[in-house]
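Action item from last week, closing it out:
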Amino acid sequence: MRLKLSIIIVNWNGRVVLEECLNSVQKFPPSFPYDIFVVDNNSSDDSVHFLKNKKKEFGERLNLILNQENIGFGR
């Protein structure tokens, strides 16, 4: 059985930190299969626009969950 890593990021108006995080994954990718899941909690900054553009770079590896309200971290 081959391991697969899931990187899960919860975001709310954190576009700058989100960019740094995703750029770091691109620069230093894991040496085994991985997926990235970003859950955006209805950000009012340009996080969603940024994520949609980043999806073009990451392709199927980047999974976006775009909530219509801020449901918090624990939910």
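Closing note: The chain is about 35% helix and 30% strand.
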